[in-house]
Specification:
The protein is of the alpha+beta class. The chain has eleven helices and ten strands. It is found in: Cell membrane.
Amino acid sequence: MIKGRKKNIMSFGNRAIKYIWRKKGKSFILLFIFIIINCMNISMLSILRVTEEAELEIKKNTQAKITLDVKESDNLITKTELENILAIGNITNVNRICKDYAIPHNFKNYKGKIEDDNRDNMITLYGYDDLSQDSRFSELEMKITSGDMVKPMSQDSVVINHNLAELNSLHIGDVIEFSKNDRTISGKICGIYKSSIENKQGENITSFFRIENMVFLSRTLMEQLVNEGNYNKVVLYVQDPEKLENTVDKVKSLLGEKIEVSVSDTMYEKLKMNLDQIEKITNVILILVVIISLIVITLIYGIWIRDRKKEIAILLSLGKRKVSVFLQICLESFMLFGCSVIVAVLVGNIITTWIERALLTWQDSRIGLNINLNVYDIVKVIAIGSLVLIISISLSLVRIIMAKPRGVLTEMEG
């Protein structure tokens, strides 16, 4: 019984190979059509996979954020409130910003033409977790001319204006002191900055408000001076920009009306919109390719099966089962389909490179799509192609499969 099955398999297998060899012209046409379809499918599937990966990547890198500004200087965001906010989740990082005033000890403040008797000799202090973010430096109004900025791990770092440094002959590494309410702290100068608008300050600005008297220091050093954990401004960096509104609502419910909330996810929305456009177009093309390929292949098989009715009738008259005939035609098709997949994989790298360049010129270059072939893409192409082939062959042979063998023979004799 087993030998009979093996012989039957070998029988329709040999017939399939011989038919392909005998009908080289038709086989080449079908192979060429398969190659075109598979190249299109593998390219579209690669693009879809890469856009999904790119969307996950931009969620991490676009730094969507929520900025909390207090409305009144005497009603600041406390440490406890911030801890409650961080417990909400969807927050990857935080930049705490505090502002206060102090009197310099071992250096002088920069004098303007107008003095404020109540704030004579005072400077303005800004404490940051990370000075490179959410500050005048990130907005390019100020830039470091010597040294470095206050960084998240800084403990006693200080950044001062170049005019203030020149006035007091201060350099990188020097230690400066300032005090408030009988509390004195010291910090080491890590950077010297220059402002693009310091020369545009009006003559009516008092010394206290001049840019030269703005001193930036680490948040930990600032908290040593004021002995509090209260913040004028807090910037929350969110993990998932799509949950931004939900996170904002939770923050507002915790802090109430004491803060003004602003969100910044423009970059994410812009990049996501571009990716969504690519994904929609790719999906439409992929669906059209599958539908058109199903129609075209079904029509081709319908015509060719009609031409092979005599051959099929002879096989049935010799006692071959209809399943054997169906498997023969399937094997013929899948042999050509397998060859076309190999060619499509080789050609696909060239096509995806061309598509990648076209997308970069059309869409935002910051997306950085790196389209390449993947094993999963090839598996999907094989799965889609196999399904299309089975449906096409079944539709083409449905009359023969449903009919009785004698009916097929009678039709051929007629």
